[in-house]
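Quick log. Single chain, no ligands specified.
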Amino acid sequence: MGNRTGQCAFLVGTGAVLWGCAGGPAPIGPGPDPHSYSRPDQVSVRHLDLDLDVDFDARRLVGSATLHLERTDLEAPLRLDARRLDILSVTLEPGGRHADFRLGPEREWIGSPLVVELDPDTDSVRIDYATGPAAAALQWIEPGQTSGTRPFLLTQSQAILARSWIPLQDTPSVRMTYDATIRVPPGLLALMSAENPTEAAADGTHRFTMPQPVPSYLLALAVGDLEFRRLSDRTGVYALPSVIDRAAWEFADTPRMMDAAEELYGPYRWGRFDVLVLPPSFPYGGMENPRLTFVTPTLLAGDRSLVSTIAHELAHSWSGNLVTSADWNDFWLNEGFTVYFELRIMESLYGRDYSEMLASLGRQDLATEFEELRDRPQDTRLRVDLAGRNPEDGMTMVAYEKGYLLLRLLEETFGRTRWDAFLRDYFDRFAFEPMTSERFLDHLGRQMLAGPEGERLARGLRLDRWVHEPGLPDNAPTPASDAFDRVDGQLAAWRAGRSAGDLDTAGWTTQQWLHFVRNLPADARAEDLRALDQAFGFTATGNAEILQAWLLEAIRTGYEPATPALERFLTDVGRLKFLRPLYVELQRTPAGAGFAREIYRKARGRYHTLATDSLDPLFESAAAEP
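-> predicted structure:
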């Protein structure tokens, strides 16, 4: 075998022997994307053929990834991202020659560069590999954690975890189509962010096609004992048998959401929009994997009151999945746009009062986030600098809610008719392309801020301050909700001495109850919570949003009757949005910190890597304190 880069030898991987080359060029650093070693300007992956066996006993995936290439620089190697993968062999096509490759040293967050030397006529590369025993994207769930009798596997590739289960160019600036063959134990159903079956294959072999090009963070796989319910010709729900009927009822408005979204910003371009309800350990409220949105079962409130998350993930089919931030520094271009679109869908279905409640709660979330980021003011900018850091650090409410407020300001400045026309053109014009803050602002300026009148508007908007400076500009819109005004009136009456049972709460929505609990007075005592609990049954509520807000108050006031519910919640639920505030609040007192450590030791193994990566430092810092 020829070698252009140095001496070749057998190297030790994470459990397998692999062939690589020592010596040669200096270690590879990140490319244009600070979180990727890839150089798509030289060689770009345009299609992926994936062939994997799912081994639940060994907790690993074994198989191959064949990457079909577009080459701009015929002298350049293929540079890929990998994180603790066992690379078994690399083969070049045409010709079938074993390739020279280097798997470089691992760096925190971004893993290792996998550099493959190419022949002049190479148009595809096959990589035979296996995932490591603790691949960060993969969560292997035991039957006892699923309310079923079979194991479960789910992936979470966002932000840069796709590289822990597939060697690829793990940057949102690269899009590819893909086909996949996935073999699983008979009786289990495999699903991907692709064209999906509705029943398990008799022999356990499932085949998938994704004809629209997607970035790597939208690659997704789930395997479990799942059933399907049809909602419309284009929508449906997958879930465990014990959950499927509740899920189908809860998300029955999904077809109406699709109609509203298309009326606003044009045709849905992904074929189907199905929803997969995952086990409770899923770390997010939802993940917008195209064709198959992943969601947490904490949305199953029993009254359809938390379905705005479905609208949010649907909106991503335009903002994020269709027009995508080029790297994670511009995450707001995905999420700020999506919150704006989500609330427009909710307004269309349920009215302006409803969407304004959601917007007001979002503004409360943003204020809380600003307080938590008071020592990191640079992270309250929309475009953040995450070079050398985990991109998860930038996935805060700033991207979501400050981004939303900027788009709302633009709507209020230009008028809804003109703004909607701009957005519809934006999604059409830049479909399947990466986007940066600079490119967006330039396009906005050319389309909406030209001429003397546009220059006047631009001075008032102060867009550069919104995007590149910390904090919230003083021209930010303020959502207003008459429904919350009624809640505030009852809160004032309760503080003035009216008993909880005499408050006028008839017809309150989940959002009103959430506003009520969030705005209990800072000097509330345990006996106050006892009276509220007796009147309204907060500790026993099945609504996860209200329960989590209530448990925060219970921790703050020392309301002990809520402790068993708190322990169950922290043990059963893996949604990071809920977990982190509860653990942070517990650690404010020595007794609470001890309780938190005890629960975390029991529950940690049930959480996804994304959750433990965020939570582990809380306990390390607490242990380090005198």
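The first helix runs from residue 244 to 250.
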